[in-house]
Automatic annotation (TrEMBL):
Gene Ontology terms, MF aspect: preQ1 synthase activity
Gene responsible for this protein: queF
Active site positions: 43 (thioimide intermediate), 50 (proton donor)
Record-linked InterPro entries: GTP-CH-I_C/QueF (IPR043133), NADPH_dep_7-cyano-7-deazaG_red (IPR050084), QueF (IPR029500), QueF_type1 (IPR016856)
SUPFAM superfamilies: Tetrahydrobiopterin biosynthesis enzymes-like
Entry-linked PANTHER family: NADPH-DEPENDENT 7-CYANO-7-DEAZAGUANINE REDUCTASE (PTHR34354:SF1)
Species: Methylotenera mobilis (strain JLW8 / ATCC BAA-1282 / DSM 17540)
UniProt family annotation: Belongs to the GTP cyclohydrolase I family. QueF type 1 subfamily.
Function according to Swiss-Prot or TrEMBL: Catalyzes the NADPH-dependent reduction of 7-cyano-7-deazaguanine (preQ0) to 7-aminomethyl-7-deazaguanine (preQ1).
Keywords (A to Z) from UniProt: Cytoplasm, NADP, Oxidoreductase, Queuosine biosynthesis
Record protein name field: NADPH-dependent 7-cyano-7-deazaguanine reductase
Reactions the enzyme catalyzes: 7-aminomethyl-7-carbaguanine + 2 NADP(+) = 7-cyano-7-carbaguanine + 2 NADPH + 3 H(+)
Length: 148
């Protein structure tokens, strides 16, 4: 284990490179949901930090996004001035370019600033792709598998 207090430098660095891997199955649609609760960028007007939770939902075609590269990609916005609407659409565009999914939605929920919460939702749909009809199943309570 490396002790960073002794002057060692972390090896991971922010990056705009998104890596992918082959989807484990292309015979059915499946939904991937990710929550990125520590997204930060800078207000382009004041330079103050903006904080958001980014929700990524997608149905892959041939490729999935690799998680470490996604973390480093999200980190790369930390020192950039970005309007909420622009950064949400840029994230979607970059992820679509890397993975070419059947469907992708990026939801950015920015924390309050000046008494205003901002939520931005951007979507991509592969031409000709239609979702399967939704099947409603019985809902289970949270932690229903815990004995006690």
């Amino acid at each position: 284990m490396t002790d960073l207090s002794l002057g060692a430098k972390p090896t991971a660095q922010p990056s705009k490179t998104l890596e992918t891997f082959e989807s484990p199955t292309t015979t059915r649609d499946f939904h991937i949901h990710m929550e990125i609760p520590e997204f930060t960028c800078l207000c382009p007007k004041t330079g103050q930090p903006d904080f958001a939770v980014i929700y990524l939902d997608y149905i892959p075609d041939q490729l999935c996004v690799e998680l470490k590269s996604l973390k480093l990609y999200m980190w790369s916005f930390r020192d950039e001035g970005c309007f909420h609407e622009a950064v949400t659409n840029r994230i979607l565009d970059d992820l679509v370019a890397a993975t070419q999914p059947k469907f992708m939605r990026v939801t950015a929920k920015f924390y309050v600033r000046g008494g205003v919460f901002t939520n931005v939702i951007a979507e991509h749909r592969k031409p000709g792709w239609q979702p399967q009809p939704r099947v409603e199943l019985t809902q289970f309570e949270s932690q229903s598998n815990i004995r006690g």
